[in-house]
Amino acid sequence: MKQKLFNKIKKILPFIGIILLFYTIFNLDIIKIINAFYLINPLFILISLTLTLPRVFIRNYVWRIIQKEHNIDLTFFQSLKIFLIGYFYGSFTPGYIGQLMRVPYMKEKTGEPYGKLFVNSLIETIVHSISLFAMIFIGAFLVLGTFPELFFIVVIWLIFMALVLIYFFKKNRGEKLFHLLIKYLIPNKLKYNFYKFVDTFYYDFPKIKGLIIPVILGILTWIIIFSQEYLIVVALGLEIPYLYFMLLFPIANVVGFIPITFAGLGTRELTAVILFSTLFLVPEAEIFVVSLLGFIITDIFTGFIGFILSLSETKINIKYSS
User: Fold this and answer.
1) Model pTM?
2) Rounded-to-integer distance, Cα 233 and Cα 294, Å
3) What is the rounded distance in angstroms from the CA atom of residue 288 to the CA atom of residue 280?
4) CA distances from 19 to 8, 25, 92, 94, 277 (A)
5) Contacts for 264-268 with beta carbons within 8 Å, 24 or more apart?
6) Which of 44, 50, 172, 185 is in the most buried spot, having the most CB atoms within 10 Å?
7) How far from the centroid of its chain's Cα atoms is residue 112's Cα?
8) pLDDT tens across 24-76, in order?
9) What Å distances lie between residue 98 and 27, 28, 108, 310, CA to CA?
């Protein structure tokens, strides 16, 4: 009974974001939303799109640093292709979990164990998220008077993340916990495969000091992302200072990480509307457009490139298998 209920909940959860998206649109003036789209000069969108390439190159370079620390041998362009394919899968899955589709493509190119490759992809995602939380921590100070609870939530979350990372960076502690979880939660017929998978988690595990530069460079990729979205703010003539946008819009992005909706769709837009309409008294319809169009430019467009690459990769595999 409980399992059936859980399965039904799993099917419903990803649509929560869609419901929130329509709820936000319903509570705003849809005519104003449409008019806001018409106000945007296409030149701003084009300029924003051109920033995609340097952003993707820098993030892939960061991932290459992590790969080298982890003794994973991929060329820059092999890594770039796999990253973009993973981005495509992540752009329509709850909590961007589809990015883990990078693992089978990495396995094909490197032959490394799945557990090691899974951890490498996970570390890259965590490093990228830590860079974002560093910006949010500063942003929380800016709104301490308006949203005092936000600062404490961010601090608690950062402490929690730090404790989890410190715990799992030690092989003995991490493996012991994973083995206990397998022992009590995994069916007997699957235990062997799971033990085999987990036992490769700590192969060539990177040192923490080797991840400092990736975290710093990760902040640069986020600055580019929010600059792409800020161009829409400029196009609409909204009076939101660049620095404030750069440090507060990440909050909406983090809410979008909650794995209950497709790539944060709906949760991010609702959070952005509440945050910026409260702090800067900008029209709700227009900040909604900033968030939605920003998502299309930074996620959907990048994911589309990954989609094209995934098709070409499929053709190559079919050619070699036939």
Assistant:
1) 0.83
2) 10
3) 14
4) 17, 10, 15, 14, 21
5) 264/17, 264/96, 264/295, 265/17, 265/18, 265/21, 265/295, 266/16, 266/17, 266/18, 266/19, 266/20, 266/21, 266/22, 266/23, 266/24, 267/16, 267/17, 267/20, 268/295
6) 44
7) 24
8) 666 666 777 778 888 889 999 999 999 999 999 999 999 999 999 999 999 99
9) 31, 31, 18, 13
The tokens for 63 are 């991932």
Contact criterion met (CB below 8 Å) for 275 and 251: yes
In this structure, the chain runs to a length of 322
Q: Which pLDDT band holds residue 16 (cuts at 50, 70, 90)?
A: low
Rounded to the nearest angstrom, the gap between the alpha carbon of residue 215 and the centroid of all alpha carbons in its chain is: 14
